Amino acid sequence: MIKYFLNIGVLLTSSAASAQFIVSVEWQKSWNARDTIYYNPDRKLEWEDFRGAPVSNSVAAAITESGFGYRMTMKSVNGKTNVNITVLCYFNKRNSWVKPGMNSDYALTHEQHHFDITYINACLFIQKLKAAHFTSNNYEALADQIHDECYEALGKMQDDYDGQTMNGRLPKVQLSWNKKIDKELSSLITN
Prior knowledge:
about 25% strand, 7 strands
């Protein structure tokens, strides 16, 4: 099961009126944050990462709180405007939890795949950003619109995952999802 939050910050350093307008998109792969893990395909979640207090009346054995967002910076010099969009895909340690005695390898795989699903949709966000036709008049609204679309797709995929696997309680369906997610992860091409 997953809980996710929208995380958007926009920082403008000058005005967007310019003759040349360039947008670049990149990953924020790390940051100095003790309670946050930024997605890295080589770093899998561990039960020690789940530091939140379990919700005893929840039907879930564990909760993964993950999400993606972006920061936007703009710099305009001599008629050239550069907009940099930095995308973050994160896991929140403080708000992710596991109930006592429920920390099996099987359950950890289910939770890891929640984080993987977040990454898959963050990659979709990046792909759509890179394909977008940004202008000085639309870049903020278009980035927000693309983010909202991709976040909606994330929510649907997370709901489908938990709904179809019954929060991981249907091993055959879980195995099918494991294969699907692993296949999507292996096909992703990111910079």
